[in-house]
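Bumping with the actual sequence this time:
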Amino acid sequence: MTGSTIGVLVIIILYLFMMLVIGYRYSKTNKSIDDFYLGGRKLGPFVTAMSTEASDMSSWLLMGLPGLALATGIAEPFWTALGLGVGTYLNWLIVARKLRRYSMETKSITIPDFFANRFDSKILVGISAVIIVIFFIPYTASGFSACGKLFSSLFGMGYLPAMILSAVIIVTYTSLGGFLAASTTDLIQSIFMSIALIIVVFFGISLAGGLDIVMANAKAEEWMLSITSCLSGNEVKPYSLLAIVSTLAWGLGYFGMPHILLRFMASKNEEQIKSCRRIATVWVFISMAVAVFIGVVGYTLYKDGTLASVVEAESFDSERILVYLSAILKDYGFIAMIFAGVVLSGIFACTMSTADSQLLAASSSVSENILHEILGIKLSEKATIAAARITVVCIALAALVIAWNPDSKVFQIVSFAWAGFGATFGPLMLIALFWKRANKYGAISGLVAGGVMVFVWKFVVRVKFAGSILDIYELLPAFILALIVTVVVSLLTPEPSNEITDTFDKVNSELKA
């Protein structure tokens, strides 16, 4: 290793050590299971907003999104980012306050808890918990995979030991400190992510010779800056209206993301939600715009041969563009070496901030919902927290198995998991909060229909009709089907009990007051 590489490694180690210290510190504050999973519902507005968005912006922000822009042009990442930005705003606007109040009223500490209490159905606990485990394990695996790719690219470490080391660090501070540790580290990680984006975009422009050269190179390839066409393989294809609608549908996923919804439930009060919404929306739009533009800058650097000094053409991976730029940056002197270390720590940050929240959400579903509520296993408060920590480790091990393949694509894994949650929990969350007539029969049917449709559309319809009008993102048709099924079945079956509707009316009246 060169001296600059060792310096970068030291910075990353210090960053990772800081995450472990935070986990240890908060391990002493978890006195109850409510503390471990929701932090006692006492998050302030800035921590709530930034930790929510950091847990949302997984490794795809600094790897998947720039890589997609570099490889295909800005069409797909542009419409994806726009859908996510609008989805972020709407989620804070229409879901956050009501979910926080409703979860307090029903004494719910997990999303399966909320659905079960809202519709008075224990079956919903089991179905919801299984859905969380099914989709969160591959989602978490994408984060572990991103960390493995990062370490192996930088320091010549094998992919598997690098991935395992990263997973051990994430699991350690998450299992020790629980929700407060995850939220505090996510806040810090959002800062690192922001700094990383700023450093890379300015350094990349400078390395390319200026903004004019970057834009000239991009304009020379019409598909690069077009939002209506993209590069598919070696062929430029139009980005149709249906493709745009399908890609915008990413925004629907927000309504069903457990690790995001849990942040709403953990907020100190409803009054601070407005401030959270402003902070979160501004950060999301700016960070995604910069990430897409880094892909545009990276295209120029790839085209002019600048990146050839750090990676051979046959092994070039568009998702590692920030890694390649950091490898160049670190040799520009001591200050540049520190900046490179911060950038690479930022990549770790965006991965870890999502993985820790996902591990907690999945753990809560297994230890609290499946063991306690479904299987009826009674444990003391201390034993329950211990079971939660063990569950975090077990879920992480399952994710490691899925991430074993170093050729897995971060964006593709995240895309499937996002569709799974968006099409199952998304429609049901909106209906649960805004339609009093919905009942448990509709809720159960909608969950099952949405989950099954994600698999059918992804692995049957899109494979059989690739390139046709049916080759659209599975979230959109699955979301629509789940919504329709929930409404139709609810109307065809008995109305919910007076107790359920009275609680619904009470929550609405309290929010209006």
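The tokens above came from a reply further down the thread. The CA atoms of residues 381 and 489 lie 39 Å apart.
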